Amino acid sequence: MKYVIFLGDGMADYPIPELGGKTPLMVAKKPGMDWIAREGRTGLFRTIGPGMQTGSAIANLSVLGYNATELFHGTEGRGVLEAASLGINLDENDMAMRVNLICVEDGKIRSHSAGHITTEEARILIQDCQEYFKNWNIRMYPGLSYRHVLIVPGGEFRLECFPPHDHVGTPWKDLAIKPLTAEGKETADLLNRLVEESQPFLEKHPVNQRRVKEGKQPANSLWPWAPGKKPVIQTMQERFGIRGAAITAVDLVKGLAIYAGMKPINVPGATGLYDTNYEGKADAALKALEEVDFVYIHVESPDEAGHDKNLALKIGCIEDLDRRLILRVLEGIDKKGWESTVAVLPDHPTPIAQGNHTREPVPVAIRFPHLQGDSVTAFDEESVKTGSLGLMAGSQFIRTFFGAL
Fold first, then answer.
1. Residues 336-351 pLDDT 10s
2. What is the DSSP string of 257-275?
3. How far is CA 154 from each of CA 92, 111, 166, 187, 385, rounded to the nearest angstrom?
4. pLDDT tens digit sequence for 210-219
5. Cβ contact 110:262 at 8 Å
6. Would you say residue 358 has pLDDT above 70?
7. Sign of the CA dihedral 286, 292, 296, 301?
8. DSSP 8-state class, residue 11
9. Of the candidates 302, 110, 135, 360, which has an alpha carbon nearest to the alpha carbon of residue 218?
10. Contact criterion met (CB below 8 Å) for 344 and 6
């Protein structure tokens, strides 16, 4: 038996007036997703529980059936996962965070990604920031584009931080990191000074001066968030007896795969944006299925389109995911003659109107090889409400997917 999950990050949305009250999933041409819904069983899945942060780390952990609150003691823990993806070994006392390169303009956050700065430019900025702050009790590691990792040895992780993609347009000084315990004040003060002192350094950096001359956004501030410490995670093979692999351009999902005992597969041209190598991801998944039982295919592009509030791009990303990846994998599975269970879902909504993550339940469809489907014929937020899977939460989705319920 082969198992495949297609995860379209941030695909879910709200009804949009310009679409006649429909969502991008409702209007997009997506025969692959609709086939899974028509031939399978559908429902809703609450990936982010009440009081939990609306981050992709928590949502993807939920999809794979892990309890983020237990693993990361109530914080998102994204930085820890991204550190693992970069091969960074954490000591027990290390606190890891995501650190973005963002654009600040007129005292407000203009962009969480500095206009999707290139990986090459970002690497120079992070390396030079590490040298500039070399006498501080921190370590910075470059990742992809605007996404990087910050380590604070002995740092306190119980902090209130603010994801920059959820606060575009907000004055950055209103988003100072706050300690949630008395022990966290020193760490919070350190990080807030880091943000403030990074700005004049980055503003004058040759990379940013060149970007401004070219009409691009400067990456003129560091922005740390998503703190956590190294967790202990039971692997997917220990839980379900399956060997798995993950295909993604996003470090947090690679890190989650590593902790979950799944092989992260790098695909040339996988960018995390609309120009990602959809076909390459599909072919890599089919190749991986020759050796493993389960492949988790994560595509970031709809989420980035949602953050950019770009409706046409989000619809296009959903259609590309379906036509260029999902259909290609389904056809490949059919040619191989593999018996398979396949599922499609977002990890969370990223509504165009808001440009940030929300916690509403997401649509889900699972096609089982020997089970009759329900009456739902399309994959979208509204159609699946009548599906036979009902409203799932916790580990219900992954246990249902693997036939453990």
1. 999 999 999 999 999 9
2. HHHTTPEEE--TT--SSTT
3. 9, 30, 28, 9, 47
4. 999 999 999 9
5. no
6. yes
7. negative
8. B
9. 110
10. yes
Report phi then psi at 330, rounded to 5: -60, -40
CB 285 within 8 A of CB 297: yes
Burial class (CB in 10 A: 0-12, 13-18, 19+), 337: exposed
Rounded distance between C-alpha atoms, residue 330 and residue 349, angstroms = 25
The helix or strand, by DSSP H or E, that contains position 344, with its residue range, turns out to be strand 340-345
Q: Are 83 and 150 in contact (CB under 8 A)?
A: no
One CATH from 3.30.70.2970, 3.40.50.720, 3.40.720.10, 3.40.50.2300 for 2-66+234-401:
3.40.720.10
Q: Is the pTM above the cut of 0.90?
A: no
Q: Write out the H or E segment, with its range, that includes residue 56.
A: helix 56-63
Q: Calculate helix-pair angle for 206-213, 119-132, nearest 10 degrees.
A: 140
Q: From the centroid of its chain, how far is CA 198? A: 26
Q: Would you say 150 and 140 are in contact if contact means Cβ atoms under 8 Å apart?
A: yes
Helices and strands, number each (H, E), in the chain: 15, 15
Task: Name 245's Cβ contacts closer than 8 Å, sequence gap at least 6.
Answer: 257, 262, 263, 264, 265, 288, 292, 294, 295, 296
Give 136's DSSP letter: S
Q: Judging by beta carbons within 10 Å of its beta carbon (0-12, 13-18, 19+), is residue 51 exposed, middle or buried?
A: exposed
Q: Give the C-alpha separation, 316 to 101, whole Å.
A: 27
To which residue do tokens 């190294």 refer?
230
Find residue 341's DSSP bridge partners: 3
Asked whether the CA dihedral 120, 126, 131, 132 is positive or negative, the reply is: positive
Show me where the domains of the chain are located. 2-66+234-401, 85-228
